[in-house]
Amino acid sequence: MNYAQLNDEALILLITHAQPQALHELYQRYHRLVFSLALNLVGDRATAEEITIDVFLKVWDKVNTYQPNRAKVSSWLTSIARYRAIDVLRQQRTRLNGHHVGWNDHLLHLPAIRHNPEEAADITLRREQIRHAVAQLPPEQQQALGLAFFGGYTHREIADELDTPLGTIKTRIRLALQKLRELLADEKIG
Amino acid sequence: MNKHDRIHPLLPEFIFGTLPEADMLAVADHITDCDICRAELQAYQAIVDDLALLGPVAAPAPDLEKRLMARVQPPVARHSITPPRGRLWQRIQPVWAVISSLLIIGLGISTLNLWQQLHAAPAIEPDDHMQAIPLLSTNKALHASGFILVSGDGHRGAVVVDDLPPLSTDQQYQLWLDRDGQDTSGAVFSVDDEGYGLSWITAPDSIFSYTTAGVSIEPAGGSPDPTGDQVMSCSLK
Ligand SMILES: [Zn+2]
């Protein structure tokens, strides 16, 4: 039985069938993606590893909550990771009594693309597409989006920190998402 | 009165997970009923999910998987904590074992027989190359979910759906396989009161030789060509 040949959805079906081998294969495919996202959000390896474990445990325990018509498996994993990481971030900030942690570290990262031989080709391609699309956004939209996404800040917190009206921040984020939607819809078809 | 106007601007923050709890609940409540806002939310969600790909790539400690697996509960213990829910996953679980074994053996067995076998289904290893392809619902059946299950060689397959609207007795659902704009009928099937349905796919060629699959509403018994609303579709490439 070679699980590497099965697609993500088939692995999920096997996980509903309580097959640990399918979880192993899913972990092999996506643990770097999940861990990297968590690390980019919380900035601490030990915490990011705990979040990674939480994500895959949730897949195992709550596989019935996956809705195939709503999201790809990889999107499901990254959204669980993001919500967990934002929880952690917000707890840390409360503990630090309102002190912002690494405010400047939360801009959208646009790293040069290095081919990672252990990563699925479609992820590498998608990363290049999203990087290209984000690079086309005006800098102030990139900044607002980065703070909301990687920083887990509320629109109100971003407005206060940047000393900009709340309505302006909302507009920037909405425009950024709309623009990305247009740009990525084009690329998806091609 | 117009709740969209209040909910719509909250959608980005809802996805980012940064709304106050009361607003999170208000949005969650609204989108279960409102097709427009839910469609909008899904479009935003897809974009935000892609943002996760930005940022430097790093690898966790090599022993992390061991730590994960140590906390994975064995199947028996797990079974008792799975909540009984009517979702496709729950229902497909026994179906999966039987279908996959039949896809391997290649029996052209009827749905009725299949259901009889389900109750005595042994744990069967699925075919190595078997693919499960999710069907995406159109705005004619927003809550529907489903899969096309195809054997590795593409010559045997089944369609499984859930939450499709039940039809009147003079209508049925029909699966179409499309290649170069030419539609071939793959299955004609009905769904039960809960919108659940299952059918084998019969096609003259390998299912993978077609480009897309779609499900439409047709007169009972099926049509030579699609005539009704399309409710689900997927790419086979
Ligand atoms: Zn609405």
Would you kindly provide a brief summary of this structure?
The complex is a heterodimer of chains A (190) and B (237). Chain A has 190 residues and is mainly α. Chain A is built from eight helices and no strands.
What attributes characterize this protein structure?
heterodimer, A: 190 residues, mainly alpha, Rna Polymerase Sigma Factor, Chain: A, Arc Repressor Mutant, subunit A, 2 domains, 8 helices, globular, B: 237 residues, alpha+beta, Immunoglobulin-like, 8-stranded antiparallel sheet, 8 strands, binds zinc ion
SSE topology sketch:
The complex is a heterodimer of chains A (190) and B (237).
Chain A: H1 8-16, H2 20-42, H3 45-61, H4 73-95, H5 121-135, H6 139-149, H7 155-162, H8 166-189
Chain B: H1 3-7, H2 11-16, H3 21-33, H4 35-51, H5 64-71, H6 75-81, H7 88-105, H8 111-118, E1 131-137, E2 145-150, E3 157-162, E4 171-179, E5 182-189, E6 197-201, E7 212-219, E8 230-235
Helix pairs in contact in B: 3-4, 7-8
Bound molecules: zinc ion (ZN).
What is the strand tally of chain B? 8
The greatest inter-chain interface is formed by:
A-B, 80 and 68 residues
Write out the CATH superfamily name of the largest domain in chain A.
RNA polymerase sigma factor, region 2, helix turn helix motif
**Largest β-sheet summary of chain A:** none
Helix-strand topology string of chain A = HHHHHHHH
Average pLDDT, all residues of chain B: 77
What is the CA–CA distance across the termini of chain A?
35 Å
* Global structural class of chain B: alpha+beta
Supply the number of helical segments of chain A: 8
CATH architecture label name of the largest domain in chain A: Orthogonal Bundle
Uncertain spans of chain B = 76-86, 104-127
- The percent range for helix content of chain A is 55-70%
Overall CATH class of the largest domain in chain A: Mainly Alpha
